[in-house]
Amino acid sequence: MNSISWLWGIVDWASIPIVALVAGILVWKKLHREFPLFFIYLLATEAATVVRFAAQFRGPLIAFYVYWISNLVLDLINLLAVYELFALRLFPRFYKVRVYRYLFAVAAAIILVGGWLSAMESADKYRALLVRERVFNVVIVGVLAFFVSLMMVMGREWKKYDFAIAFGFVVANAGSLIASAMWLRTNYRFTTVQELAPITFDAAALIWLYSFWSKEKVFNRQALVPLTPEMVQEARRWETVLKASISARKRAPRDPE
User: Fold this and answer.
1) Domain enclosing residue 234, as ranges
2) Is the pLDDT of residue 155 over 60?
3) Number of domains in the chain
């Protein structure tokens, strides 16, 4: 293997230790109970990546089925983790409505399982599976864009961990969407753009690692400077000056017409 192959190999499997660290930090800080579906997604991603790494030494056919079956499972958990983030945490009122409570999961199952069955019946399985992957990425990026726009329109403030999870999912799924589109466009020929999917997922894992590893900023009330009598007197003096200025403008005579 040349240096370029070693480089792409590191990029492809760098997420194994990073995701393991993120999951470990969640357990250490007891955040896995606060983000249960995201934590399950991390564990599933770690297990799927390790199995894929082992499957590549068992032949191309085994590696093919291991990759796409694990990819189907990860897609479903990915969508559920996004549902947890927005429907359960940022917009909890959605969860109280029974229709929204089950609609998201049922729609995800229909899209993913239906796409997988149609891919298995297709003559060109590579193209069918890539189309299914592309459809999922479009759905997940669209859902993320909708909720992020909703957050901006409603003027809601992001919490640190919520923003990191959402930003990581946007980066990872957008990269996968572009990579799958380029793979179809080049008729499955390997190009540098094809490595965009693992690169963006590594970037998302690093975003999660930095966010959960760093300490969350806490507002310190003791850091506030206490008011002194001199400060109160100065504020009242400026208030008096301002009122006098406004009153003088109101009493000013108008210009003759």
Assistant:
1) 222-251
2) yes
3) 2
